[in-house]
Inverse folding.
């Protein structure tokens, strides 16, 4: 069935009525509206004329999955229950969708947050939605793309990062995301004195993102930088003042005062806001560090949702075989220890395997294409057969799109194997292997050796001491959520 289904997760707040009223006056009407009741123990049914589904209080990610899986339309448009729709919103939605090509999985609507001339800290926090990428306050996805990636990651229990994480997986599966012309209005809802402290629970979700995507997760997920380092410094200085050095109290006081000042300066500076900022600025760093620590423990060993890996791509020199610079002699091919066993296990698991290798010696005239092919053939005889070979013959000066750290070799291998880049793991020994995987939206494991720089180890999301440990990590990831 073509058309659009609107999915609205809710916990029964009064603002839902306003949104449904806005929807009722839209023209044309959507094909269906699914309201998903995410109250854990609803005492009464929602007063709603649309189809109501229940998700059992598992959070907005799970609620959205319940909503879209019950739909049979080509497109699913997600709305938060506290947004307002201007007249003509559905018409603009259809305009956004019908101009897209088949490679686009999702299109985002703009978000307007009305705030006062000198907004409070909470108003400014809500206004951050205006710059959020792929926020599900107004985001439409093709149903087939949601099916391919198994929807939202239900390990996110609150409305925080679950939309950015979904968008990241979409891109890793080869889909494009774009921004449309429509928009919604997101009013600032009333909140209590401690709201800024309560929202620090989201630091647990930060821990999940880091566990899955590594320390550079904010970059790959297009999330703004956080303030965790400052919160850790503030909390540690307070502990030091109590246990070790009273002079640390001065550091804690300066850090807390600076934090409060940064929150106060843009705001109205009323007596109520001043008291709120002073008190919460003293408490907030401890809450942030506490929730981050809990999340780090809870999500240790977590992998991407879903845990599907279809192919493993290996760097050649230094990873599968001992590195012989510009080798053109098949007799000098010597596999590293554990290479046979690692590839045997991947074969037993039914995973496709391939090799991606930079061979700039061809471009430099130090080795011929025929000699490189002979070396690759010998490696294929010793460890293969490999399902795909991708070789870049260019030098760095050529500026080609295939030489690692560019994504060309990874993308070409994924295309050759017929799998999305998001289902590919790259195993290599240096930073360019990991960067190529990141650029292609694939996963990666670094196996360091003597030539691996310390900075490359620090920057890698997943590091294992040897080739067999890297393969075991890949195989373990397939069976764990």
């Amino acid at each position: 069935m073509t058309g659009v289904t609107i999915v609205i997760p809710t916990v029964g707040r009064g603002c839902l009525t306003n949104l449904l009223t806005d929807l009722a006056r839209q023209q044309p009407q959507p094909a269906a509206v699914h309201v998903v009741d995410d109250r854990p123990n609803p005492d009464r049914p929602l007063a709603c004329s649309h189809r109501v589904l229940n998700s059992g209080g598992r959070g907005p990610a799970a609620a959205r999955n319940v909503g879209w899986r019950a739909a049979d339309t080509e497109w699913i448009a997600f709305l938060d229950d506290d947004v307002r729709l201007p007249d003509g919103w559905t018409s603009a939605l259809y305009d956004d969708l019908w101009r897209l090509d088949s490679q686009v999985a999702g299109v985002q609507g703009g978000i307007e947050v009305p705030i006062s001339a000198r907004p409070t800290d909470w108003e400014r926090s809500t206004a951050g939605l205006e710059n959020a990428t792929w926020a599900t306050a107004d985001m439409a996805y093709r149903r087939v793309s949601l099916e391919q990636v198994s929807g939202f990651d239900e390990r996110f229990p609150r409305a925080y990062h679950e939309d950015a994480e979904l968008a990241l997986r979409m891109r890793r599966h080869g889909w494009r995301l774009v921004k449309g012309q429509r928009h919604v209005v997101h009013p600032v809802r009333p909140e209590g004195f401690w709201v800024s402290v309560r929202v620090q629970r989201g630091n647990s979700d930060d821990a999940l993102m880091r566990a899955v995507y590594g320390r550079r997760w904010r970059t790959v997920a297009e999330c703004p930088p956080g303030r965790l380092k400052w919160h850790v410094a503030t909390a540690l200085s307070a502990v030091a003042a109590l246990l070790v050095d009273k002079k640390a109290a001065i550091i804690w006081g300066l850090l807390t005062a600076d934090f409060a000042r940064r929150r106060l300066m843009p705001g109205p500076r009323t007596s109520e806001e001043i008291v709120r900022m002073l008190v919460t600025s003293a408490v907030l760093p401890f809450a942030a560090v506490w929730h981050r620590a809990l999340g780090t423990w809870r999500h240790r060993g977590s992998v991407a949702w879903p845990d599907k890996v279809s192919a493993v791509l290996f760097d050649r020199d230094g990873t599968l075989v001992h590195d012989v610079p510009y080798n053109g002699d098949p007799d000098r091919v010597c596999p590293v220890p554990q290479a046979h066993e690692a590839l045997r296990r991947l074969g037993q698991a039914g995973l496709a395997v391939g090799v991606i290798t930079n061979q700039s010696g061809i471009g430099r005239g130090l080795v011929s294409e025929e000699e490189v092919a002979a070396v690759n053939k010998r490696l294929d005889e010793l460890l293969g057969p490999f399902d795909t070979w991708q070789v870049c013959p260019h030098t760095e000066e050529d500026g080609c799109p295939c030489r690692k750290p560019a994504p060309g070799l990874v993308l070409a291998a994924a295309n050759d194997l017929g799998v999305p880049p998001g289902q590919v793991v790259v195993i290599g020994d240096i930073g360019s292997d990991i960067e190529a995987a990141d650029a292609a939206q694939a996963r990666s494991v670094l196996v360091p050796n003597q030539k691996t720089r310390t900075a490359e180890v620090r920057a890698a999301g997943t590091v294992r001491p040897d080739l067999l440990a890297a393969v075991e990590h890949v195989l373990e990831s397939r069976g764990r959520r």
Q: What stands out?
A: The CA atoms of residues 237 and 244 lie 10 Å apart. The mean pLDDT is 92. Residues 192-302 form one domain. The radius of gyration is 26 Å.
